[in-house]
Amino acid sequence: MITAELLEKYGAIKKSFNKNEIIFEEGNLPAHYYQIISGEIKMCNYNDDGREFIQGIFYKNQSFGEPPLFLNQKYPANSIAVEDSEMLLLPKSNFMKLLEENPAISIKIIENLAQRLYYKSVMAAEISTHEPEHRVLKLMDHGIAYFNFQKDKNGYLINFTRQQIGDLTGLRVETVIRAIKALEKKGELRIINRKVYR
């Protein structure tokens, strides 16, 4: 999103996180802008039973955690490295200065936040009103459009685990597995070597 050179010019530092390491916790006040160099990050909450609900998954060149940064509010979710990851951290005051001095970057950030808000609105409607198969397909199509899933001769490789699909759609893993099998029978998906293609 923002070039590494520009972020570093404003004082960003590179930091590595190990798989399952917490980047920030729900309830903490934000102090940095985060942009992923490599790896995968999830934003999630846990209910009273310990069940995880994934708010979002973020990949290379994506940023995360900006709304609380702008609002000076506590993080509403935890941020955890799904795999070994490296990212750029820019202190909040430097980030605000970067945006003030680079209006084109501000527009990009606004577009990115608008896209996330749109996705949340669409998925909220899907989760509350549609059957599991429909929810799973909608999530996959969103992933294809916005997460740059790779395409090969088999179609788009859906780079979500069954557990992540469940956590993103509010479905149990068993329900996700049944939905994927049903969608394969209908010709909507392909399963090759346990990987799902759309």
From TrEMBL:
Q: Does the keyword RNA-binding apply?
A: no
Keyword presence, Transcription: yes
Q: Name one Pfam family in it.
A: cNMP_binding
Classification via PROSITE patterns: CNMP_BINDING_3 (PS50042), HTH_CRP_2 (PS51063)
> Gene Ontology terms, cellular component aspect?
cytosol
Q: Write out the entry's keywords from A to Z.
A: DNA-binding, Transcription, Transcription regulation
SMART domains associated with the record: cNMP
Q: Which InterPro entries match?
A: cNMP-bd_dom, cNMP-bd_dom_sf, Env_Response_Regulators, HTH_CRP, RmlC-like_jellyroll, WH_DNA-bd_sf
Q: Which residues form the HTH crp-type domain?
A: 130-198
Q: Name one GO molecular function term.
A: DNA binding
Domain Cyclic nucleotide-binding: start-end pairs? 1-116
Q: What is this protein called?
A: Transcriptional regulator, Crp/Fnr family
Q: Which organism is it from?
A: Flavobacterium johnsoniae (strain ATCC 17061 / DSM 2064 / JCM 8514 / BCRC 14874 / CCUG 350202 / NBRC 14942 / NCIMB 11054 / UW101) (Cytophaga johnsonae)
Lineage, uppermost ranks? Bacteria, Pseudomonadati, Bacteroidota, Flavobacteriia, Flavobacteriales
